[in-house]
TrEMBL record:
Organism: Algoriella xinjiangensis
Any GO molecular function: phosphotransferase activity, for other substituted phosphate groups
Keyword Protein transport: no
Bilayer-spanning residue ranges: 6-29
UniProt name for this protein: Sugar transferase involved in LPS biosynthesis (Colanic, teichoic acid)
Database matches in InterPro entries: Bact_transf
Family label: Belongs to the bacterial sugar transferase family.
Bacterial sugar transferase domain: residues covered: 4-189
Swiss-Prot/TrEMBL keywords: Membrane, Transferase, Transmembrane, Transmembrane helix
């Protein structure tokens, strides 16, 4: 794990040197596009169940209520572009530098999911969450999958989330630095 931590820190530092200008530009464009500050933060559950603020470039204008029970996300065209190319996640390089995240690991869940982990599944909380990993690669088109089902929240909770937990438990149990490098390469070269 020392190699993993050192790799994360050095790579994040190098990437930020080259990408900080792009991140600032995307935040400015997002601010104009969404009429809100372009850097989005949200509480997520990290290693050992600690709560931290994840950084993303804002891709939505917010929520609009079309009925009492339905909320629709207003993803802008620019926001969709950011999501398609995972550019909205570039600010997470700062999360890596702060020691809250890794390049590879289970995706950090919002509060309300990680606390549902029981028994062996809690092993996921023994590692830093990642920007990418096997579950993220498998469900790279998660938004499209959820858009095609009748009840996206139920489908996410009963199908996607449970499968991601299995994948992430396997990742933690069988971790290797070589596998991490492979996940990074697949992430870069897979759309």
């Amino acid at each position: 794990m020392l190699i993993k931590n050192l790799f994360d820190y050095i790579l994040a530092l190098i990437l930020l040197i080259f990408l900080v200008g792009l991140i600032i530009l995307l935040i400015i464009i997002s601010s104009i596009n969404t009429n809100q500050f372009g850097l989005f933060t949200q509480n997520r559950v990290g290693k050992n169940g600690r709560i931290f603020k994840i950084y993303k470039i804002r891709s939505m204008k917010g929520f609009s209520t079309s009925s009492v029970t339905t909320k629709e996300h207003n993803i802008t065209e620019f926001g969709q572009f950011l999501r398609d190319y995972k550019l909205d996640e570039l600010p997470q390089l700062f999360n890596i530098l702060k020691g809250e995240m890794s390049f590879v690991g289970p995706r950090p869940d919002v509060v309300g999911y990680a606390d549902k982990l029981v028994d062996e599944d809690r092993i996921i909380l023994n590692v830093k969450p990642g920007i990418t990993g096997p579950a993220q690669l498998k469900y790279r088109n998660e938004d499209e999958i959820l858009a095609q089902v009748e009840n996206p929240i139920k489908y996410n909770d009963e199908v996607l989330w449970t499968d991601k937990v299995k994948i992430n438990v396997d990742y933690v149990k069988n971790w290797s630095f070589i596998k991490d490098l492979n996940y990074i390469i697949k992430t870069v070269y897979t759309k």
